Amino acid sequence: MTANDSFDRLDDDDYPAYTIGRAAELLGTTQGFLRAVGEARLITPLRSEGGHRRYSRYQLRIAARARELVDQGTPIEAACRIVILEDQLEEARRINAEYRRTAAQAATGD
Questions:
Q1: pLDDT class for 63, splitting at 50, 70, 90?
Q2: Torsions phi, psi of 69, nearest 5?
Q3: Cα–Cα–Cα angle for 76, 41, 48, nearest 5°?
Q4: What pTM does this model have?
Q5: Order of strands, sheet of 18-19, starting from the edge strand that comes earlier in the sequence
Q6: Which of 62, 74, 106, 108 is deepest in the core (most CB within 10 A)?
Q7: Which letter does DSSP use for residue 18 in this model?
Q8: CA-to-CA distance for 96 and 50, rounded, in angstroms?
Q9: Could you say which DSSP state residue 54 is in?
Q10: Is the dihedral of CA 53, 59, 64, 65 positive or negative?
């Protein structure tokens, strides 16, 4: 791997660049919170060769959404479930819109 390869990964939302300590610091939360959202299966951090949790920017955005709900008084398990359901709803809407586009194109003969 070259230095350029390493820099290219910094733009990758899925690259596990953050340790649990740094991730907690960025989110303004505790490492325990990150472990809890992992146990609730909201996010699954990748593991380094030494077994340490590593988080991507994408995972941190998801954890931040759960943290907002927890900060509003929602229990952590419920917050994680809400975020999961919101994501599932968004995906269903995206698929539905695609089906509608396909059906409209078929109806007009495009």
A1: very high
A2: -65, -40
A3: 115
A4: 0.78
A5: 18-19, 53-55, 46-47
A6: 62
A7: E
A8: 43
A9: E
A10: negative
The one-letter amino acid at 79:
A
Among 54, 63, 78, CA closest to 28: 63
pLDDT in tens, 32-62: 999 999 999 999 999 988 999 999 999 999 9
Number of residues that this document lists for the chain: 110
> In the Cβ-directed half-sphere of 53, how many Cα atoms lie within 13 Å?
19
Task: Report how far residue 40's alpha carbon sits from residue 71's, in angstroms, rounded to the nearest whole number.
Answer: 17
In angstroms, what CA-CA distances link 28 with 31, 40, 60, 64? Answer: 10, 19, 11, 9
